[in-house]
Amino acid sequence: MGIVCRMRQYSPDLTPPWKKSQPVPKVAAEPGLVVEEPGTGFCGAVIRCEAATVTLEDRFGKHRVFPLEPRGFLLEGRVVTLVRPSSAPARPTRTASGSVAVPGARARVARAGRIYVEGRHDAELVEKVWGDDLRIEGVVVEYLEGIDDLPSIVADFAPGSDARLGVLVDHLVPGSKESRIAEAVTSEYALVVGHPYIDVWEAVKPSSVGIESWPRVPHGQDWKTGVCRALGWPENTGAAWERILGSVRSYRDLEPELLGSVEHLIDFVTAPE
Questions:
Q1: Strand order through the sheet with 140-143
Q2: Beta strands 26-28; 63-67: pairing state
Q3: Which of 87, 115, 178, 203 is the Cys-Cys partner for 258 at CB 3.0 to 4.6 Å?
Q4: In the Cβ-directed half-sphere of 58, how many Cα atoms lie within 13 Å?
Q5: Is there a contact between 97 and 130 (Cβ–Cβ < 8 Å)?
Q6: Boundaries of each DUF3097 domain copy (predicted)?
Q7: Would residue 138 be called left, alpha or beta, if left means φ above 0 and alpha means ψ between -120 and 50 degrees?
Protein backbone atom coordinates (compact mmCIF):
# COMPACT_ATOMS: atom_id res chain seq x y z
CA MET A 1 0.00 0.00 0.00
CA GLY A 2 1.41 3.37 -0.96
CA ILE A 3 1.74 6.12 1.57
CA VAL A 4 -0.33 9.20 0.79
CA CYS A 5 1.39 12.44 1.74
CA ARG A 6 -0.89 15.38 2.27
CA MET A 7 0.72 18.78 1.80
CA ARG A 8 -0.33 21.32 4.38
CA GLN A 9 -1.89 24.33 2.75
CA TYR A 10 -0.63 27.75 3.88
CA SER A 11 -2.56 30.87 3.21
CA PRO A 12 -0.66 33.43 1.17
CA ASP A 13 -2.41 36.15 3.18
CA LEU A 14 0.14 37.45 5.65
CA THR A 15 -2.04 40.31 6.85
CA PRO A 16 -1.90 40.64 10.66
CA PRO A 17 -5.06 39.32 12.34
CA TRP A 18 -6.11 42.76 13.54
CA LYS A 19 -6.13 44.07 9.95
CA LYS A 20 -8.12 41.28 8.29
CA SER A 21 -11.32 42.24 6.55
CA GLN A 22 -13.97 41.30 9.11
CA PRO A 23 -16.26 44.25 9.86
CA VAL A 24 -15.19 46.18 12.95
CA PRO A 25 -16.76 49.13 14.72
CA LYS A 26 -15.82 52.70 13.92
CA VAL A 27 -15.03 54.77 17.00
CA ALA A 28 -14.69 58.54 17.14
CA ALA A 29 -11.21 59.56 18.33
CA GLU A 30 -12.47 61.82 21.08
CA PRO A 31 -9.89 63.40 23.43
CA GLY A 32 -9.21 61.11 26.38
CA LEU A 33 -10.12 57.86 24.59
CA VAL A 34 -7.49 55.24 25.51
CA VAL A 35 -6.45 52.89 22.69
CA GLU A 36 -3.49 50.73 21.70
CA GLU A 37 -1.67 50.68 18.36
CA PRO A 38 -1.02 46.92 18.04
CA GLY A 39 1.88 47.15 15.63
CA THR A 40 4.02 48.97 18.19
CA GLY A 41 2.20 48.15 21.42
CA PHE A 42 1.97 51.88 22.20
CA CYS A 43 -1.01 52.56 24.46
CA GLY A 44 -2.23 56.05 25.24
CA ALA A 45 -5.04 58.58 25.38
CA VAL A 46 -6.11 60.57 22.35
CA ILE A 47 -4.97 64.17 22.71
CA ARG A 48 -5.45 65.33 19.13
CA CYS A 49 -7.05 64.09 15.92
CA GLU A 50 -6.22 65.60 12.54
CA ALA A 51 -7.62 64.76 9.10
CA ALA A 52 -5.43 61.67 8.67
CA THR A 53 -3.57 61.19 11.96
CA VAL A 54 -4.20 60.77 15.66
CA THR A 55 -1.82 61.72 18.48
CA LEU A 56 -1.68 59.55 21.60
CA GLU A 57 -0.11 60.32 24.96
CA ASP A 58 1.00 57.48 27.24
CA ARG A 59 1.10 57.52 31.04
CA PHE A 60 4.66 58.85 30.99
CA GLY A 61 3.67 61.90 28.91
CA LYS A 62 5.25 60.58 25.69
CA HIS A 63 3.47 61.47 22.45
CA ARG A 64 3.22 59.35 19.29
CA VAL A 65 1.44 60.14 16.03
CA PHE A 66 -0.27 57.35 14.08
CA PRO A 67 -2.19 57.29 10.79
CA LEU A 68 -5.95 56.82 10.93
CA GLU A 69 -5.89 53.49 9.11
CA PRO A 70 -8.83 51.06 8.96
CA ARG A 71 -8.64 48.46 11.74
CA GLY A 72 -5.63 50.29 13.10
CA PHE A 73 -6.24 50.21 16.88
CA LEU A 74 -7.36 48.12 19.81
CA LEU A 75 -9.99 49.44 22.20
CA GLU A 76 -10.26 47.34 25.37
CA GLY A 77 -8.75 44.47 23.38
CA ARG A 78 -11.13 44.79 20.42
CA VAL A 79 -10.04 45.82 16.94
CA VAL A 80 -11.57 49.15 15.92
CA THR A 81 -11.23 51.78 13.23
CA LEU A 82 -10.66 55.23 14.66
CA VAL A 83 -12.33 58.06 12.80
CA ARG A 84 -12.18 61.80 13.21
CA PRO A 85 -15.04 63.08 15.41
CA SER A 86 -17.81 64.29 13.13
CA SER A 87 -19.34 66.82 15.46
CA ALA A 88 -18.05 70.37 15.43
CA PRO A 89 -15.61 71.01 18.25
CA ALA A 90 -17.14 72.57 21.31
CA ARG A 91 -16.31 76.18 21.95
CA PRO A 92 -13.33 76.21 24.31
CA THR A 93 -14.19 77.14 27.88
CA ARG A 94 -10.56 77.90 28.75
CA THR A 95 -7.84 79.86 27.02
CA ALA A 96 -4.43 78.32 26.39
CA SER A 97 -3.26 79.83 29.68
CA GLY A 98 -6.04 78.06 31.61
CA SER A 99 -8.12 81.22 32.14
CA VAL A 100 -11.87 81.21 31.62
CA ALA A 101 -12.56 81.98 27.95
CA VAL A 102 -14.77 84.98 27.16
CA PRO A 103 -16.46 84.25 23.79
CA GLY A 104 -16.78 87.33 21.62
CA ALA A 105 -14.76 89.51 23.96
CA ARG A 106 -13.21 92.52 22.24
CA ALA A 107 -9.61 93.51 22.76
CA ARG A 108 -9.16 96.34 25.22
CA VAL A 109 -7.41 99.52 24.12
CA ALA A 110 -3.72 99.03 24.88
CA ARG A 111 -2.55 100.16 28.29
CA ALA A 112 0.38 102.50 28.71
CA GLY A 113 2.09 99.72 30.65
CA ARG A 114 4.10 97.05 28.86
CA ILE A 115 5.72 93.66 29.31
CA TYR A 116 9.23 93.35 27.88
CA VAL A 117 10.82 89.98 27.11
CA GLU A 118 14.36 89.22 25.97
CA GLY A 119 13.84 87.94 22.46
CA ARG A 120 11.46 87.07 19.67
CA HIS A 121 11.08 83.45 20.77
CA ASP A 122 10.03 84.57 24.25
CA ALA A 123 7.47 86.93 22.74
CA GLU A 124 6.03 84.26 20.43
CA LEU A 125 5.70 81.77 23.27
CA VAL A 126 3.98 84.29 25.55
CA GLU A 127 1.62 85.24 22.71
CA LYS A 128 0.72 81.63 21.98
CA VAL A 129 -0.21 80.78 25.57
CA TRP A 130 -1.35 84.12 27.03
CA GLY A 131 -2.38 86.03 23.88
CA ASP A 132 -6.13 85.89 24.55
CA ASP A 133 -5.67 87.09 28.13
CA LEU A 134 -3.31 89.90 27.12
CA ARG A 135 -5.68 91.24 24.47
CA ILE A 136 -8.58 91.34 26.91
CA GLU A 137 -6.38 93.16 29.44
CA GLY A 138 -4.90 95.49 26.83
CA VAL A 139 -1.31 94.48 27.59
CA VAL A 140 1.29 94.73 24.82
CA VAL A 141 4.38 92.47 24.84
CA GLU A 142 7.58 93.70 23.20
CA TYR A 143 11.00 92.07 22.88
CA LEU A 144 14.37 93.67 23.55
CA GLU A 145 17.01 91.51 21.83
CA GLY A 146 18.87 91.16 25.12
CA ILE A 147 18.89 92.93 28.50
CA ASP A 148 22.43 94.32 28.78
CA ASP A 149 21.04 97.88 28.70
CA LEU A 150 17.96 97.13 30.81
CA PRO A 151 18.46 99.86 33.46
CA SER A 152 18.62 102.58 30.79
CA ILE A 153 15.69 101.02 28.91
CA VAL A 154 13.58 101.17 32.07
CA ALA A 155 14.67 104.76 32.71
CA ASP A 156 13.67 105.77 29.17
CA PHE A 157 10.28 104.08 29.62
CA ALA A 158 9.75 106.05 32.87
CA PRO A 159 7.29 103.65 34.53
CA GLY A 160 4.66 105.12 36.83
CA SER A 161 1.43 104.21 38.59
CA ASP A 162 -0.47 104.53 35.32
CA ALA A 163 2.23 102.86 33.18
CA ARG A 164 3.76 99.87 34.90
CA LEU A 165 6.55 97.90 33.28
CA GLY A 166 7.15 94.16 33.63
CA VAL A 167 10.28 92.42 32.35
CA LEU A 168 10.79 88.70 31.80
CA VAL A 169 14.43 87.58 31.94
CA ASP A 170 16.02 84.27 30.91
CA HIS A 171 18.46 82.50 33.25
CA LEU A 172 17.60 84.66 36.26
CA VAL A 173 19.52 82.75 38.95
CA PRO A 174 21.60 83.99 41.90
CA GLY A 175 25.07 85.16 40.90
CA SER A 176 24.35 85.34 37.17
CA LYS A 177 24.95 88.37 34.96
CA GLU A 178 21.20 88.57 34.48
CA SER A 179 20.58 88.79 38.23
CA ARG A 180 23.05 91.67 38.59
CA ILE A 181 21.35 93.57 35.76
CA ALA A 182 17.91 92.94 37.29
CA GLU A 183 19.05 94.25 40.68
CA ALA A 184 19.99 97.56 39.05
CA VAL A 185 16.32 98.23 38.24
CA THR A 186 14.88 99.94 41.31
CA SER A 187 11.63 101.63 40.24
CA GLU A 188 8.66 100.59 42.33
CA TYR A 189 6.62 100.58 39.11
CA ALA A 190 8.93 98.16 37.30
CA LEU A 191 9.06 94.45 38.06
CA VAL A 192 11.80 92.15 36.78
CA VAL A 193 11.17 88.42 37.11
CA GLY A 194 12.49 85.42 35.24
CA HIS A 195 13.02 81.72 34.97
CA PRO A 196 16.14 79.59 35.62
CA TYR A 197 16.52 78.24 32.07
CA ILE A 198 19.37 79.26 29.77
CA ASP A 199 16.84 79.96 27.01
CA VAL A 200 13.06 79.94 26.80
CA TRP A 201 13.34 76.74 24.73
CA GLU A 202 14.07 74.89 27.97
CA ALA A 203 10.88 76.22 29.55
CA VAL A 204 8.90 73.93 27.21
CA LYS A 205 8.50 70.50 28.76
CA PRO A 206 10.66 67.88 27.01
CA SER A 207 7.74 65.44 26.88
CA SER A 208 5.73 67.97 24.86
CA VAL A 209 8.55 68.26 22.32
CA GLY A 210 8.94 64.46 22.18
CA ILE A 211 12.39 64.26 23.78
CA GLU A 212 13.55 62.72 27.05
CA SER A 213 15.30 65.86 28.31
CA TRP A 214 17.00 69.02 27.16
CA PRO A 215 20.66 68.21 26.52
CA ARG A 216 23.55 69.82 28.36
CA VAL A 217 25.62 71.95 26.02
CA PRO A 218 29.33 72.43 26.85
CA HIS A 219 30.26 75.91 28.04
CA GLY A 220 31.49 78.09 25.21
CA GLN A 221 29.25 76.59 22.52
CA ASP A 222 26.23 78.36 21.10
CA TRP A 223 23.49 76.83 23.22
CA LYS A 224 20.77 76.55 20.57
CA THR A 225 23.10 75.11 17.94
CA GLY A 226 24.45 72.68 20.53
CA VAL A 227 20.92 71.54 21.37
CA CYS A 228 20.16 70.86 17.71
CA ARG A 229 23.40 68.93 17.33
CA ALA A 230 22.85 66.85 20.48
CA LEU A 231 19.29 65.95 19.48
CA GLY A 232 20.25 65.06 15.91
CA TRP A 233 18.18 67.90 14.48
CA PRO A 234 19.37 69.97 11.50
CA GLU A 235 21.48 72.84 12.81
CA ASN A 236 18.84 75.38 11.85
CA THR A 237 17.73 77.14 15.01
CA GLY A 238 14.82 78.87 13.27
CA ALA A 239 13.35 75.55 12.11
CA ALA A 240 14.05 74.03 15.53
CA TRP A 241 12.10 76.81 17.24
CA GLU A 242 9.14 76.31 14.89
CA ARG A 243 9.17 72.65 15.88
CA ILE A 244 9.27 73.51 19.59
CA LEU A 245 6.64 76.24 19.41
CA GLY A 246 4.38 73.95 17.38
CA SER A 247 4.43 71.44 20.23
CA VAL A 248 2.99 73.99 22.68
CA ARG A 249 -0.80 74.04 22.86
CA SER A 250 -1.49 75.25 26.37
CA TYR A 251 0.09 76.09 29.70
CA ARG A 252 0.35 72.35 30.40
CA ASP A 253 3.27 72.21 27.95
CA LEU A 254 5.31 74.74 29.94
CA GLU A 255 7.41 74.44 33.09
CA PRO A 256 5.92 75.95 36.29
CA GLU A 257 8.80 78.42 36.69
CA LEU A 258 7.84 80.20 33.47
CA LEU A 259 4.11 80.02 34.16
CA GLY A 260 4.45 81.66 37.56
CA SER A 261 6.67 84.45 36.26
CA VAL A 262 4.41 85.41 33.36
CA GLU A 263 1.28 85.33 35.52
CA HIS A 264 3.07 87.53 38.08
CA LEU A 265 3.96 90.08 35.38
CA ILE A 266 0.40 90.22 34.02
CA ASP A 267 -0.98 90.79 37.52
CA PHE A 268 1.61 93.51 38.18
CA VAL A 269 1.06 95.41 34.93
CA THR A 270 -2.74 95.28 35.25
CA ALA A 271 -2.88 96.27 38.94
CA PRO A 272 -5.19 99.23 39.65
CA GLU A 273 -3.54 102.63 39.81
A1: 140-143, 114-117, 165-169, 190-194
A2: unpaired
A3: 203
A4: 13
A5: yes
A6: 26-85, 114-270
A7: left
